[in-house]
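Module 6 notes. Inverse folding takes a fixed backbone as the condition and produces residue identities as the prediction. Think of it as a translation problem where the source language is geometry and the target language is the twenty amino acids. Below is one complete input and output pair. Work through it position by position during the lab.
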């Protein structure tokens, strides 16, 4: 329990005043024994136990009343919410989830989940700890830079607590707090975590929770307080622009846009609902009236005429305002389309013929495609700045080689990398993954694909919902994968549960996103599989990997908001916002890569445009159940506070009224116990007997 006036607690010994007065009263008169009194004392022996208990209870209630009035004057803070038993800790760590989903607002107050949580944390920490604890802030967008805060009132004012359009990684935040506690020997520590329980942010099924939980159990005096805003946004829509490209025909130019609108609460929407989409292109706005069906809208190939002289530009698609403003807009940029170039590194050019043909075949007739094959000895000739996809069918490079560092730079630029099994695997690995031995199908025919991920990734269903014929692929020969503490995300598995296609978990070191790394364990040749014969799956797989890596090609690029996406801080300072509004016009350079919008750098033909958007996972309505959170914190000292944005009650509420009522109750009970026993009225017979008459004499006298 905490107190606003703790000095008054030194007066608590005054609660013993009733005892002192009682002892003084006992010794105030001298005791004299005389004979007549002995009969009265003997008569009271039967009531002695009750009388003693009554005296002790009266004394206890008097002590309780004095103690309660002293505690009331000290203004105690408590509450089942704050739960600050044991006084203020040495250190308070505040972990803030700054993801886009935390900007869901209460329309009545205008406060977002992040703002409401910060306000409650500020007031609660200020009133409960009274500056007796060191305050440290760790935010989801800058995990490697914990910040000491002088006083709680500064929490909401710090740029490291402002809104972002990024995603968050709760296990990584807790790991950062563990590292800070260990490195700084923080003593007794309270860890406050502000989150909206979004399922993707918590990664409950990941393998990081168990070792981290074990490490926390070995640290004494660490308590966890989770302030959770888990309610979903009602009647909320989210928009995402998948593609925006410029095309010109017959001297006329137009912008072709593919976009998706989806409800985050499908059960609350009508079967059909009118929808107004606002398109803003180079600052000029237009409105397109359409219709939402079953909470979804897929607008493909929407054409907007533009001036033929406009070769590049920017824009956004906006939805009507609702309770979640962060997903009401999606930004895009456009320019003359760059060539989608892919490079195949292989010493077996014949085996790669089908892959080269698939990558060179156009999906979009207005787009240029180019695929080249280089032997492994000429891998240094890869045009890194122009290549969206690298297909590597050669021994894995040594991690210390220049080519390995160039591959890492290729991924850091947001491009794609697909590894295929070589004939000679070599001794090296790539990020902990290496090739094993060849495995040959032992049945009468090729082994079939038993499972594949159809909701996301390279093998996802087509835009009209049709499934790719992945289950018809037969595999005769495949290489095993050897894992070394690297997280693999399976995209397809064989009948014996062996992986066919996997993706490496993204490397988010430093909070920076990157391109995708895939391992395909078989080859398209007829001696290995039926991938080339069927063709559809191979074509879709390769072009999706190519499209994923093409977002950072050319002078107009689409990227996801995140730290480091614009380079280091000095490089980020050279970018400027060109779609400014009141909220983003004065953003510091450190926040530019964290907020959605359009950025520009350079002049004239060298101008570069980048459209930053929130990660699509932030639109997911899935929230982590409280029971799952309890399992994640099992074995730790934790409290879960489920709050609402509209709830304005403080985390640290004063409870002096409780002690005031306790004092009143103690005085009332003391008064009741002090009352003399009620005497029963005497009947005439009892009165005559007491006077010395018999019953017969009484009747005669009458």
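Target side of the pair, the amino acids:
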């Amino acid at each position: 329990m905490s107190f606003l006036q703790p000095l008054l607690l030194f007066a608590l010994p005054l609660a013993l005043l009733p005892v002192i007065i009682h002892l003084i009263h006992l010794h105030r008169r001298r005791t004299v024994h005389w004979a007549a009194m002995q009969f009265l004392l003997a008569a009271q022996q039967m009531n002695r136990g009750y009388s003693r208990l009554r005296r002790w209870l009266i004394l206890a209630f008097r002590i309780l009343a004095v103690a309660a009035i002293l505690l009331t004057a000290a203004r105690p803070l408590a509450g089942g919410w704050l739960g600050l038993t044991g006084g203020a800790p040495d250190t308070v760590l505040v972990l803030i989830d700054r993801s886009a989903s935390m900007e869901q607002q209460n329309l009545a107050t205008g406060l977002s989940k992040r703002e409401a949580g910060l306000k409650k944390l500020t007031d609660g920490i200020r009133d409960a700890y009274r500056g007796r604890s060191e305050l440290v802030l760790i935010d989801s967008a800058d995990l490697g830079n914990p910040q000491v805060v002088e006083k709680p009132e500064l929490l909401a004012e710090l740029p490291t607590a402002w809104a972002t359009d990024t995603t968050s990684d709760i296990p990584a935040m807790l790991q950062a707090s563990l590292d800070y506690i260990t490195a700084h020997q923080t003593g007794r520590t309270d860890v406050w975590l502000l989150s909206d329980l979004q399922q993707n942010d918590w990664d409950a099924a990941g393998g990081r929770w168990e070792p981290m939980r074990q490490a926390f159990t070995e640290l004494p005096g660490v308590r966890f307080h989770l302030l959770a805003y888990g309610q979903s946004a009602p009647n909320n829509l989210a928009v995402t622009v998948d593609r925006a490209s410029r095309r010109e025909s017959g001297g006329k130019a137009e912008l072709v846009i593919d976009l998706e609108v989806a409800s985050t609460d499908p059960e609350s929407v009508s079967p059909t609902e009118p929808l107004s989409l606002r398109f803003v292109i180079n600052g000029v706005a237009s409105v397109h009236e359409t219709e939402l069906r079953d909470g979804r809208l897929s607008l493909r190939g929407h054409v907007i005429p533009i001036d033929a002289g406009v070769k590049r530009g920017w824009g956004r698609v906006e939805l009507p305002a609702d309770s979640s403003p962060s997903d009401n807009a999606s930004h895009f940029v456009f320019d003359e389309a760059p060539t989608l170039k892919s490079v195949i590194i292989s010493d077996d050019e014949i085996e790669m013929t089908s892959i080269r043909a698939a990558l060179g075949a156009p999906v979009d007739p207005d787009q240029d495609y180019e695929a080249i094959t280089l032997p492994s000895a000429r891998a240094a000739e890869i045009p890194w700045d122009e290549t969206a996809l690298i297909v590597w069918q050669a021994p894995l490079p040594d991690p210390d080689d220049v080519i390995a560092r160039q591959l890492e730079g290729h991924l850091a630029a947001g491009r794609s990398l697909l590894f295929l099994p070589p004939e000679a695997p070599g001794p090296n690995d790539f990020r902990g993954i290496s090739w094993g031995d060849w495995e040959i199908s032992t049945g009468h025919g090729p082994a079939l694909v038993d499972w594949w991920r159809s909701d996301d990734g390279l093998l996802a269903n087509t835009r009209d919902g049709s499934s790719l014929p992945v289950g018809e692929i037969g595999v005769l020969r495949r290489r095993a994968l050897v894992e070394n503490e690297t997280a693999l995300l399976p995209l397809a598995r064989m009948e014996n549960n062996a992986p066919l296609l996997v993706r490496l978990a993204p490397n988010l070191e430093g909070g920076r996103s990157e391109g995708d790394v895939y391992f395909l364990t078989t080859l398209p040749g007829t001696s290995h599989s039926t991938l080339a014969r069927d063709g559809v799956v191979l074509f879709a797989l390769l072009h999706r990997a190519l499209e994923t890596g093409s977002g950072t090609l050319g002078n107009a690029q689409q990227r996801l908001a995140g730290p480091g996406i614009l380079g280091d801080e000095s490089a980020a300072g050279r970018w400027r916002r060109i779609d400014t509004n009141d909220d983003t016009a004065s953003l510091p350079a450190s926040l530019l890569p964290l907020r959605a919008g359009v950025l520009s750098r350079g002049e004239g033909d060298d101008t570069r445009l980048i459209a930053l958007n929130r990660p699509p996972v932030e639109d997911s309505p899935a929230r982590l159940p409280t029971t799952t959170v309890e399992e994640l914190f099992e074995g730790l000292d934790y409290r879960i506070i489920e709050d609402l944005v509209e709830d304005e009650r403080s985390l640290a509420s004063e409870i002096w009224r409780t002690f005031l009522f306790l004092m009143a109750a103690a005085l009332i009970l003391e008064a009741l116990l002090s009352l003399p026993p009620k005497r029963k009225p005497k009947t005439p017979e009892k009165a005559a007997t007491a006077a010395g008459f018999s019953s017969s004499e009484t009747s005669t006298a009458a």
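Reference fact for the lab report: The first helix runs from residue 17 to 26.
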